[in-house]
Amino acid sequence: MIFSFRLMFISVIQVIITASITFFFVTSEYKNLSNESLKTLQTFMIQQKEQELKNYTVIALSAIDHLYESADKDNTVTQSLVTNIFDRILYDNGNGYFFVYDDKGVNISHPIQPHRVGKNHWELENDKGEKMIQILIENAKSGGGYYRYNWVKPSLAKETEKLGYSTYLPKWNWMVGTGVYLDDVNKQLTTIQNAIGIHINKTKHIILFVALSSIFAIFSLELFLNFKHKRKSDIKINELNQRLINLQEEERRRISRELHDGIVQILISIKYNLEATKMKLTKVKVEYPESLYTGERNLNTAIHEIRRISHHLHPQILDELGLSSAIEALVVEFGKRTGISVSVKKPAVRKLLPDHVNTTLYRVVQESLTNIEKHAHATETTVELFINRRWLTLTISDNGNGMPNIDNQPETPNGIGLRNLAERMAYHSGVFDVKSTQRGTVITAKIATSSFSNYYGRSNLEVVA
Amino acid sequence: MNDVKQKVSVMLVDDHPMVQDGLRACLSFYEDIEVVGSTCNGGDALTEAVKLEPNVILMDISMPTMNGIDATEIILEKLVNTKVIIFSMHDSVEFVTSAIQAGASGYILKDTTSEEVYYAIKTVLNGKTHFSGSIANTLIKSPKKLENEKLTTREQLILSHIARGNTSKDVAKILNISFRTVEAHRRNMKVKLGLNSLAELVRYAVNHGLIKK
Q1: CB nearest to B94's CB, from A268, A325, A389
Q2: Contacts B175 to A, Cβ<8 Å
Q3: pTM reported for the whole predicted model
Q4: What is the pLDDT of residues A104-141, one digit of tens each?
Q5: CATH 3.30.450.20 holds for A2-181
Q6: Which of A86, A127, A139, A284 has an alpha carbon within 20 to 30 A of B9's alpha carbon?
Q7: The complex's ipTM?
Q8: Is B203 on the interface with A (CB under 8 A)?
C-alpha cells in the first residue's frame, strides 16, 4: 500500500515535470519562430510601403513634369501651378498628400496644414531631437530617401509613426515629400502578435488539461486499485475470521464431548463403584461411613458442574438430535429461566444441515434470545424453523420494545453480536435480517435449500442395517 | 419372566467400559439379573442384540458410529420382545421424547442409583414404562404432548430412499428389514405429515432438502 502510494507520487511528479518542460519548450520555440516571421513580415510590409511611396512620387512628379521641365528657374507662376497640382494629389483617404519645402526649410505647400505655408521649419524637432525637415531635405538632396518620424495623421488628428519619402527638384531647390502612416502596419502586427499569444495560451491550456487528466487518471487508477485491494483483503479477513470461528466451534465441540463422554463417564463409573461398595457393606452388615456420603455428594456436584460447562461450550443435543430439537431445548430452558412465554414451530424432518451451518443457526437463536432477555422487555417469543422449496427460514420474533440498530449495537463482552452473526450467515451464503420496531423485533436467518439438499443423502444413506 | 428362578437377561450398550464395569458390579448384587453382553457403540449393538436377544437393553445415547436412540429404533424393528431402557446423562426433554418415539420403554439418568436401574428393568419387563423422577417431572410439566408429528431417524431415512425412486421392496432389501416394516413406516409417515400419496411424499422430501432436486 505504502509502496503503491510512493509509486503514485512519482508518477504525478513525472507528469508535472513532463508537462512543464513540454510547455516551456513548445512556447519558447513557438515564440522565437513567430517573432522571426513577424520581423520578416514587418520588413516586407515596410518594403511594400516604400515601394508604394516611390510609385506615388513617380506619379506625382510625372503630373508636374511638363510644367517643371519647360519652366524657368524662378517662374513663380509655374511654381504656383505646380503647387496647386501637388495640393490636389491626395490618396489613401486623404492621409496621403504631398508637401513642399525649399532648401532653407520654408514651407511652400501643405494641403493639410496650410498654416505652415510661408513659414520656416528648418529647426522643427521631434521628441528624439531630430530636425525632421533638415533630414527630409538632406534625403531629398542625396537622390531621394526614406525617413521614419512622427506626424499628425489627418484621419486620426493625432500623431502616429509616419514613413516619409522625399525627393528634390534641383532647378527650384525644392524638396517634395510624401508619406504613409504606419499605424495600420503596427495594428496588423499587434493583431498577429495577439493571435500568437492566444495560440500560446491555447497550447498552455491543452498541456495543462492533458497533465491534469493524466494526474486524475493516475489518482483514479490508484483509488480503484486500492479499493479493489481493500475489498479483496476485506473478503480475505472475513473468510479468515469465519474460519477461525469454525475452528473455535470445532474446538468447543471437541472439548465439550471430551468432558461429557470422557470425564463425566469416568465420574459415573466411580459413582457406581461407590454404590457397589455400599451394597457390599450392606451385605456384610457394616454401617456406611459418613465420608462415603460426602464423597457421593461431592461426586454429584462434580458431575453436575462438568456437564454444565460441557453444555455451555457446545450443546450435544445439536449433534445427537439435530437443530430443531436443540432449539426446542434452548427455548424451553429460556422460558423456564425468564418466565417469557415461548412457542416453537419446527419441521418434521431434521439433521439436514452441515455442522457449521447448524451451529451458526443455533448461535443465532441463542444470541437473539439473549438480546430479548436483556433489552426487549418482551412477554412473548416465537421461534420458527420452516423449510419450503427454496429456503430454510429461521425466525425469532418477540413483542418487546425493539432494539437499537444492528450497526451501532454495543458489543457485549459475552454475546456474539448480531453483526457477527450476519457475517457468519453471509459466510454460509445465507441471508440475515433484523426488523425492529417499538412493537417488537423479528430476526430472520435464511439458508438456500439448494445449498444443503445434498447433505442428508451423502451422510446418511450409507447407514444400512 | 417374572419368575424369580428365570434370570432377566440384560445387555449393556455404553461406549465407556468403566461405566459398564461399575454398572455390572452393582447389578451383580441382584440375583435375578444377568448381564449377558455388552457393546461399546450403536452399530455393534445391532448385531449383538440380534445374536443375544436379551430381555432388556440398557442403552446410552452419545456413542460413536450410531447414537443410542437410532440404534433402539432399528433393534426394535427386529426384536419385538426386547425392551430398551435409555441410560444417559442427557436430561433434556427432547432426548426423552425422541427416545419414546424410537420405542424405548424407559429413560433413566446415569446419575441415578442402581436400585432405580433394577426397578426400571423390572418395570419395563411388565410392559410398563419407567422414567427417572426428574424426567417424569419435565414430561408432566412440559405443556406439549409427545411429538407425533416429527419423523424418526428411521422414517426419515426410508423417506429419502423412497424419494430416490426405490420401492418398498428395494428399501427392505437395502435396509435388511421386512417389507411389512417398510410399509408400516410409510403408513406412519403419511399420517404424521398429513400426506396421502407417494407423489406427495416424494415432493415433501424434495422440498425439505432431503434429496437434491
Answers
A1: A325
A2: 464-465
A3: 0.67
A4: 999 999 998 889 888 998 988 888 888 889 999 999 99
A5: yes
A6: A284
A7: 0.86
A8: no
